[in-house]
Amino acid sequence: MAKSKSQPADNTHEPLAKLLKILSSPWTMLLLHRLHMEGPKRFGELKRRLGAISTKTLTERLRMLEAEGWVHRHYEPTVPPQVTYTLAERVLELDPLMVELDRIAERWYGRG
Questions:
Q1: pLDDT digits (tens, 9 = 90+) for 21-61
Q2: Which stretches make up the HTH hxlR-type domain (predicted)?
Q3: CATH 1.10.10.10: does it fit domain 26-109?
């Protein structure tokens, strides 16, 4: 049955579309995975652990995740200032997904 022009659009997929848009942005899953598996990290440490990520991209991803409430930024006004990033509790709901993706990645692309 064809949709008439007067019927409202089906927006039931919008929450999933938003979640997938965030997760699929470059470096986001690896960044979340590092924080999930290794705990709180400072910016420089995250950059070293992620490898080829640029400073600009890491800054953008951290700001986006902080704005979404996925990552907390803790600022210590020391000299030099210390900024630590941690996962928000809500992101821990992704734990089964992270663990399973890790297993699949090892099976498909693991050291062999």
A1: 999 999 999 999 999 989 999 999 999 999 899 999 999 99
A2: 14-112
A3: yes
> pLDDT tens digit string along 63-93?
999 999 999 999 999 998 899 999 999 999 9
Which residue do the tokens 């440490």 mark? Answer: 45
Quote the CA–CA distance of 35 and 86 in Å, as a whole number.
6
- Domain segments of the chain: what residues? 26-109
- Residue 27 phi/psi, 5-degree rounding, is 80, -15
Cα separation of 7 and 2, whole Å? 10
CA distance 28 to 6: 39
